[in-house]
Sequence to fold (941 residues):
Amino acid sequence: MPSLSFLHPFNLLLLGLTLLPPLLHLTKQKRYRIQLFPDIRLIRKTEEESRRRFRLRDILLLILRMTALASLALAAAAPTIYPAKAPQGEGEKRTVILMDVGYPMDTTLNDGESKLELAKELVVQFISALPPQTKTALLSHPRLAEVGGLSWQEAYTLQNILPHLKSSPQPEDFPLAIAECVRLLGEEGGRIICPSDGRWLYEIDTPVDLGGCNLDLVLFNQSQPDASLRLLSVDAGEGILTVSLQAYARGMGGSALITVHSGKNEVQKRVELTDEVPQEVVLSIAGEDWGYAELTMEGDSLTWNNTVYFVAHRPPKVALLVPAYSEGYNPLARSLDLGEQDHRYQVTYISPHEITSLGPDTCLVIDEAMLSDVGLEELRGFLSTGGSILLAGDGLLQDKAEKLLIEALGVAPTASPKSGQFNITATGTNPNLIPPDFPLEEVQVTVSPHWQGPERVVLARLSDGSAAVVGGGCLLGGKMAAILIPLSRSYSNLTTSMVFLPLMDSLVKGICWQPTPHLQLGQQLVERKAELLLPLVNGEMTGTIELPGIYHLSGGGEKEALAAVNVAGINPPIGNEQALKLVAGGFEGGEVKIEDPAEFSKKSRTARGYSLTAVLICLALALLIAETLFFPPLGSGYSRG
Amino acid sequence: MTEKNKAFALLDPETLSAIGQLDILARQVVEGYFAGMHRSPFKGFSVEFAEHRSYQKGDDIRYIDWKLWAKRDRYHIKEFEAETCLSAILAFDASNSMGFKGLSKISKLQYAVQLSAALAYLLIRQRDAVGLAVMDTAVRTLMPPRSTTRHLHHLLVELTRIRPAMCTDLGKSLMSLGERLTRRGLLILISDLWDELSSIISGLRAFREKKHEVIVFHLLDPLEMDISLNRPVIIEDMEGGGKLPWTPRQREAYRRNLEQRLDTLDKTLGEMGADYVVLTTDQHHGKSLAAYLAKRKRLW
Fold:
């Protein structure tokens, strides 16, 4: 059964306000003035008539006002419904908080908050989410040595104590502390929650007996002795991957070996790491477009291995056609300010005779004015490899462009059954080809009769006939595009850049630039982090994880998945496999669970229940509005009559 | 202001101007032998001497007082009470409820006094006799009908002396008045009619059965017509009927009930052959009276 409790029960005293309406009703009557009247027999008659009708109204009004006030009072008491839970055993209603208040817990996390502060917040959240009957106790660092001194405490006492806890230099003896917790929990068992940085896990010599209790380790493990590798960037070009890495050691120093793998190749580099001093390493390797880098560092008793995976990101290639004699001058590129500094594309400038050297992953941009310089055979050869063409211009040479495309594609000019005049609508137009602010409603489109089939080029002409407009569409399986830019005087406010760049952006990306499957997988994993990362990292992934429409990740694809994770810029929540190994062998006689602080917080919030405050405030407002609407003040409704 | 001046102040020029040349015409044959405007079944009936007046051309020489001619060498006509063809009695409700002054500038009693004065003047000017009966729970004052100017003066003085008192018992008062009036004539009831309808109607019916003509002026304050108070109040009966809480939400029901009461009165009195006129005290009594007389003349 769901349980209801109040966060501020003293505010329930405000329920006394519900007596206000009847009290006001009674006191207000005494203030009525006396009006002399010649005869009251008719008034007596009307009073008898109306009394029955309005008695119900008065009662409803009274109830409504009292309910509104009661709702506000209850809202002030912050009622909370806790979701129904499965029947709990007696042991699960007993929880001991074992708080790590060692000095290392003062270490500041990335967001500027210390681990201890965060741990305290999490525990307060957790305690407030516990069911009311739960027995609680707190064992913090200063009391660790007091064997037998731990006893049950009220939850609100713990909530008051926790904010005042400070880090302490006393030596930690967690095995002893856990033994004390187990003693308190007794044979009935229970749950031990231990927010900690986990350093003490390395000091366990013999397995700790949990006595049948469950231990939840909320690990802030960033400060454990560790050596890690972070990916800074991957540059891909001409078959060589240049990988920038950052090696980092915490709690130790020494020599570390960094190995980068890609395909069947690997390169190695040894670096000397100083404690908490990051060091950048750049390695180049020829191979596939993805790979992984490993760091191996040997400490006093343990060896740390850390691996990061990477995927090369190649921007789409755009080739701008320039006249053979222009020595690189291209008026279109100049007007667009589309130079090499634009990192969105790999821009190259080619002469007409170089068209045949272009690869299939290139989008060839041809200025309309240069159509006469392009050889038909070269164009046809380029298209046959699967290349894409972006034809740009102001439309003045539309007929010529059309003819060229027809000839290049080898499509016979036949009359299209769909030819004719029509207006562009949002549904009839590829939205990627039309910029958002383009005045579509003023454009009249003529479908060229020379194209047939669904993948046709649409050549449009402005309704005022001043200039040809867009030709937009894909041909031959999405490998061909033609765009004629509208630059009529009527639309002089549309500059070339305004129109062309969005078009090119969408067209180039849509045709010749596809994100690698790894990157897409990474994006999917970001969205499904909680679901997918943990089994991936723990190596527990079995079977197939299906990412709809993108990728099928089988048991053998973990490395690719981790590469994608790295590309997407996320780190596994439990990165320290060493800690996991230590936990696996450090305890016996009970279940140990490692909790990520973020997940732990999320679960606590979920278990906290659902606040009814907002609902009650809304109810009160609704009642007051209803009163205003349906029960106008006495007299005001009648004076109109 | 002397009592005389106060009395004649009731006949303000505006009222007199509004009444103009209109006369009350009896609808049926009334007692009296005067063969003027009113038809009478009695002829040569001796009556009491009233007063002298100067002879005017056309006067019957039989009524010249020769003795006075011998003394003064002028012709004077002797006038008698029974020369009037109409004997009207103003039945004046002077109960406490008539003292109510709501939204109007004057109380119903003041309004009734002015209305009575106007009617008395009108009747006496056309040589009809007019009397006054002041009533509350019983007939408190009764002035028999007379038609002389002096009587008008007495009547007006009496009107100025009326103060609201006691409760209303119109039925009993009317019965009592009916028993005391020996001659048939015109009964003009001026009241707010806050009494049991059956009692009022039975009292008036008694008059009608004795062949009296009946005109009822029902006076109401605008606040009585529509209780437009926009706040709840405690309403206290002016005649000791108790107190009741009143809220504006009763306004519609009150108005509906009042209309029903007025309709009942109108219908019942109409069937009885009596005139029923509702006047509110925010209307000018002279104009209201003129309007009524004009309507009555048209009906005649």
Notes: The longest helix of chain A spans residues 41-76.
